[in-house]
């Protein structure tokens, strides 16, 4: 019944000047339509709001709630402690070290992903034969999941049989304990993460480079500008929105890194790669410390919310510096 | 005189071209090196790999072992079922929600949309504790459903399809109303076909996202019968790695090939979808 649009009547109306009677009828129909829309709105939005409610809104509030309590081993709140959990975290040297490690990781991954992705995109943005083949290869890491990446790279980082140390030996360089030395472990996970992000970043930058109007370069050629000058004064400014988009996406994604850490270092050695999300997992599901893990979750959520908010602002503005 | 200048320019151009190809090849080699090495060693006997050697008798033995001695096929099947169901369900629920935000008139429409948009700021990783408890309360643990239900819809999907539906000319909707098309009919016959590039992009995004899930399945599944492929690899790795690198590399190769196929097929749509999104 709800589908029955009185379409015939409506057609007739358009052919006549609307008299008072028709106007009333049209109003009634509009009212019916709107009632109809309301019904459909419930139907169409209901499932999404149910899922978002149970698995996004409720858990956020629940996490906030748990962060104000002490919890038992089942994650049930016991004693209200106010902001004490937050104070404990902020004065905890181990947690601050984890924040610092996450900062190093996120900045490292974002910076190198952008540099490498932009380099690949610039190199692939030429009209020469067979370029499609290279472009396909450059996007290939998009299809490699976190477990597979971790396994491929774990093999290369292996201290005795790994190819990296074998190359080092061949070149008479000192070998490195890639994953058991705190500093090199960070280098190793950053390298793997950059590699994983490369395909997607390349694709986005490449799309942006292709959309820069060619006339700009022609004009620069006429005035004799060098290609380096063109890159810094035409290309970079033109793709700055993409630049920020990639930076934000990569930052958020690396803030959430979990699988890579879990498979490659398990947060070690001596917490050197114990990044925020891995800490949350360990505190909650290994040590049963749900209150602390909830507090850490809120801190993570605040960080990500700030970055996402900045992203929205930037996307709304479509910056062109 | 003019001739020598021309040949010189020609030579310049050729050297430049060789240099370009050289640069491209070196970069391509670096990018796919981990991949090639993984594939290469997956054909070598483990005894050779354990010695650090990268040569030996190539054979399919590791693949035979992976298929017969590990549950890798089961992992693949699990992931395939979960990802395909999740993909279609996600497309459906996100698209009807997006439809409501574009074509329906109702109270608080914009407010509700901002509420959905706000959830994009909340990372799933920060909510796993209550979600795990919810899954336990609902008796969903160790079941396919637990890996699908939380991802039936997403703010990102709704947002993306809303952008796409907004491109549909309003005249189309008006004439559809005149013709007496119901919302379902307009959704199915006009809105979806009109936005097929966005739909395909979201499908690929959704499938890969589900296929690459790691933390949530790790928390909620405990048996090989249900374990999806990423956590399956984690399991294999923790059981086997010290002894059997050949088997691990073969398993990783088996896992990566389907996603690469999806990627290369979907790439065309993916690219245009992303460009479409960035223009608006």
UniProtKB/TrEMBL annotation, chain A:
Major subcellular site: membrane
Name listed for the protein in its UniProt record: Sugar ABC transporter permease
Domain annotation ABC transmembrane type-1: ranges: 99-311
Residue span of region Disordered: 1-22
UniProt cross-references to Gene3D superfamilies, sorted A to Z: MetI-like (1.10.3720.10)
Family: Belongs to the binding-protein-dependent transport system permease family.
Transmembrane regions: 39-61, 103-124, 136-156, 184-209, 230-255, 298-316
Source organism, top-level taxon: Bacteria
Membrane topology value: Multi-pass membrane protein
A Gene Ontology biological process term: transmembrane transport
Keyword set includes Transmembrane: yes
Protein's cellular compartments: Cell membrane
Record keyword Cell membrane present: yes
Biological source species: Lactiplantibacillus garii
Alphabetical list of PROSITE patterns matching this protein: ABC_TM1
Keywords per UniProt: Cell membrane, Membrane, Transmembrane, Transmembrane helix, Transport
Pfam families, sorted: BPD_transp_1
One GO cellular component term noted in the UniProt record for this chain: plasma membrane
């Amino acid at each position: 019944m709800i589908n029955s649009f009185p379409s015939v009547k409506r057609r007739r109306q358009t052919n006549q000047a609307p008299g008072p009677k028709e106007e009333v009828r049209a109003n009634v129909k509009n009212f019916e339509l709107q009632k109809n829309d309301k019904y459909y709105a419930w139907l169409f939005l209901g499932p999404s709001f149910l899922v978002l409610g149970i698995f996004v809104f409720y858990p956020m509030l629940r996490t906030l709630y748990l962060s104000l309590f002490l919890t038992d081993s089942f994650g049930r709140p016991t004693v209200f402690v106010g902001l004490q959990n937050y104070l404990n975290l902020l004065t905890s040297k181990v947690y601050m070290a984890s924040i610092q490690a996450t900062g190093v990781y996120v900045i490292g991954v974002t910076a190198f992903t952008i540099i490498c992705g932009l380099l690949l995109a610039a190199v692939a943005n030429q009209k020469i034969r067979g370029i499609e083949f290279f472009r396909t290869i450059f996007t290939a890491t998009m299809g490699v999941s976190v477990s597979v990446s971790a396994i491929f790279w774990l093999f290369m980082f292996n201290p005795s049989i790994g190819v990296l140390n074998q190359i080092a030996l061949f070149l008479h360089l000192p070998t490195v304990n890639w994953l058991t030395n705190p500093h090199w472990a960070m280098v190793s996970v950053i390298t793997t993460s950059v590699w994983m992000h490369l395909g997607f970043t390349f694709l986005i930058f490449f799309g942006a480079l292709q959309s820069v109007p060619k006339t700009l370069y022609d004009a620069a050629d006429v005035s004799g500008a060098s290609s380096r000058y063109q890159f810094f004064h035409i290309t970079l400014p033109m793709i700055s929105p993409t630049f920020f988009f990639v930076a934000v996406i990569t930052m958020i994604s690396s803030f959430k890194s979990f699988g890579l850490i879990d498979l490659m270092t398990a947060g070690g050695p001596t917490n050197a790669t114990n990044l925020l999300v891995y800490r949350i997992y360990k505190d909650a599901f290994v040590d049963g410390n749900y209150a602390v893990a909830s507090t850490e979750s809120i801190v993570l959520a605040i960080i990500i919310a700030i970055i996402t908010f900045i992203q929205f602002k930037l996307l709304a503005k479509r910056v062109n510096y | 005189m003019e001739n020598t200048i021309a040949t010189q320019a020609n030579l310049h151009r050729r050297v430049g071209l060789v240099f370009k190809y050289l640069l491209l090849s070196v970069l391509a080699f670096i990018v796919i090196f981990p991949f090639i090495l993984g594939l290469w060693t997956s054909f070598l006997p483990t005894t050779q790999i354990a010695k650090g050697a990268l040569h030996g008798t190539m054979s399919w033995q590791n693949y035979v072992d992976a298929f017969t001695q590990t549950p890798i096929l089961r992992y693949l099947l699990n992931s395939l079922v979960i990802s395909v169901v999740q993909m279609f369900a996600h497309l459906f629920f996100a698209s009807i929600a997006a439809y409501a935000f574009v074509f329906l008139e109702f109270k608080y429409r914009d407010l509700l949309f901002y509420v959905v948009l706000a959830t994009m700021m909340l990372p799933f990783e920060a909510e796993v504790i209550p979600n795990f408890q919810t899954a336990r309360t609902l008796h969903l643990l160790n079941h396919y459903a637990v890996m699908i239900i939380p991802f039936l819809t997403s703010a990102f999907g709704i947002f993306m399809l809303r952008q796409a539906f907004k491109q549909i000319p309003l005249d189309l909707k008006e004439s559809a109303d005149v013709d007496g098309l119901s919302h379902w009919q307009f959704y199915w016959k006009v809105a979806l076909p009109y936005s097929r590039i966005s739909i395909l992009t979201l499908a690929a995004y959704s499938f890969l996202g589900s296929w690459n899930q790691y933390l949530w399945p790790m928390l909620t599944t405990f048996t090989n019968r249900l374990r999806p492929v990423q956590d399956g690899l984690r399991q294999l790795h923790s059981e086997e790695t010290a002894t059997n690198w050949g088997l691990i590399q073969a398993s990783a190769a088996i896992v990566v090939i389907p996603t690469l196929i999806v990627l290369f097929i979907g790439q065309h749509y993916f690219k245009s979808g992303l460009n479409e999104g960035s223009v608006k």
